[in-house]
Structure formats: C-alpha cells, structure tokens
Amino acid sequence: xxxxxxxxxxxxxxxxxxxxxxxxxxxxxxxxxxxxxxxxxxxxxxxxxxxxxxxxxxxxxxx
Length: 63
Hints:
single chain, two-stranded parallel ribbon, 3 helices, 41% helix, flat
C-alpha cells in the first residue's frame, strides 16, 4: 500500500506561527503536497480561521 499523497492531489496548510510542527518538517510537507496554502496562524488554524477553512474546503470540493 502506498501513501495517498503520492497519487492523489493534496493540500497542505502551512501555519507561519506554528510552534508545534517544526518549520523544517512543514517545509517537507509542502514539498510533498500538490498545493500549499500559507496562513498567518498558530497550530490551531482550522479553529481560529473558520472562514478560511470553509472557503478552502469549498474550493477543494470543486476540484
């Protein structure tokens, strides 16, 4: 079994103020993803950026 990100489009949300996921690990994730979105947020981006999260999900559902 292979990882889904190898064969399916993927989006990674990079959080500029994340103090949980190390910046180098975030860079690795962005290289693996098909698309990267950068938000000025801490680790809890999906909770603190509800409108951005909803807009991203709508956009991804359309692709």
